[in-house]
Amino acid sequence: MPGGTPGRNGFSGAETSRDQADPSKYVTVLSGDIDRNDTTNGKGVTTSYAGIVGSNAHLIVTCASQPGLFVFDGVVISGGSNAGKGAGMRFEFCSLALRRSAVVGNRTQLLGQGGGLYFKGDSGQSLAIANATFGSNFAGLSGGGVYIERPSKSAPSATVKDTLFEDNHAEESNPNCMPEISGGGALHTTVNIMDVEGATFRNNQTNCAGGAILQTFSGILRIRNSVFIGNRSVSVSYNPSNDDGSGGAIYTWGHGTLVVESSLVAGNHADRDGGGISDVIGGKLIGVTLVGNTARQGGGVFAIPNTGLTTTKVSNSIVTDNFAVGGSGDNIKPNNPIDVVISHSVVQGSNGSGAGWNSALGVDLGGNIDVVPGFQNVVPGDPAASNYRLQLGSPAIDAGDTAAVTYPYDLDGKPRVFNSVVDIGA
After folding, report:
1. Torsion of CA 122, 124, 125, 126, to 10 degrees
2. Residue 140 pLDDT more than 90?
């Protein structure tokens, strides 16, 4: 298929317009199950990498150094299996738009990258994923669902919008993991600009760093209006010099920029540091609700940026009911107290802004409160069933800093600022 050709699926044959496509009803499956012995559903889809049996196709969709934009709309790509890169889709120096599609049940073993999708490009290429699903893919090194690589500083931009990442795994066999190259149960990105909006990351896992997302090198990662629930970063070595088991939901490494805004991070776990987020580069958390995450230290956030050069900035956020099983920093654990600055946030154990501030959490910039935020419904042990919206009368309502807002919507898609004021939390 030449670049620039629109690829749209989901037709019965009776339509009169391509806008009548219904890919959820009329499924187009591109399967790597060439010997037809995988564990599949009724439509021939290998729904989990664990269901791959025998000799499957090493690549299902591949593109190398082709001009134009390749569009895949309404397809299911499953059952690819190799020991290298991108068993489901491999795009190198080609532009890709993936829409209303599912990439499920693919695996790259050994030192594999991008079990579902491997994308590599420079400033001449782009990647846009929208209304898609990446489910139960596996990589033997990094990026269980998606791996995005930049070959040089002139790297491509990439966007992920309204997409589900669920049950993807990135697990290497070497117990001495290196987070700059290994991890990201759902997604590993190294590109210059990466925008994630309206995405859900659920039950993804790595045994290195970043149960859901691993960001490395010097790019910009902006996560907005997204949900992280039940992701895990587990340790296989517990070697103090390693970072395996860090960043239950998100792990950053290098000299890039992280912005998380209007997002929920709940019920994630790290065996080591940062049950919710482990921030090594100095990120911004704006209007984020971090609740019910666990780790050895830094149950909610573990911050270890370059002391004196960068800081982790927390504003308009709720950080509560997280737990450090090692007893060090249930909610926020900075490597050095000056590494974190906090303003207009609900932080459990902080004692609120002023003379009683708990300086072990970071630097108080004012407007912080230590109160029960008043969520609508918390189901113990089940963040997916909980409702973390604020009740009427919550002390977090109208208590934020409007000047800190950079994204116009809250997690429900409603205006972030209402009547010239902003609430604390997602």
Report:
1. 100
2. yes
